[in-house]
Design brief:
Elements (H helix, E strand, L loop, with lengths): L20 H16 L3 H5 L3 H25 L4
């Protein structure tokens, strides 16, 4: 299960904040591949800072979409 704060905008540790090193890299590559339909070589071909910038942008978009869904379907 993903922690509630996994969608914090701008988070470098977007999906699972407790991950480091190789596991974090896998999550970043997976997120870019899954959501943006990038291949492994495309994601890995980016400089670290550039890849993380894309992950932050993705996190921001997903956080905004989550907020929109919550506003459209408020819990009672």
């Amino acid at each position: 299960m993903r922690p509630d704060d996994a969608y914090l905008p701008g988070s470098d540790q977007f999906f699972y904040p407790e991950l480091t090193g190789a596991d974090q890299l896998r999550q970043e590559v997976f997120a870019l591949g899954y959501h943006l339909h990038w291949g492994w070589s495309e994601a890995m071909g980016l400089e670290i800072g550039e890849r993380r910038a894309y992950v932050r942008l993705l996190a921001d978009v997903l956080a905004e979409q989550k907020s929109e869904m919550e506003r459209a379907n408020p819990r009672r």
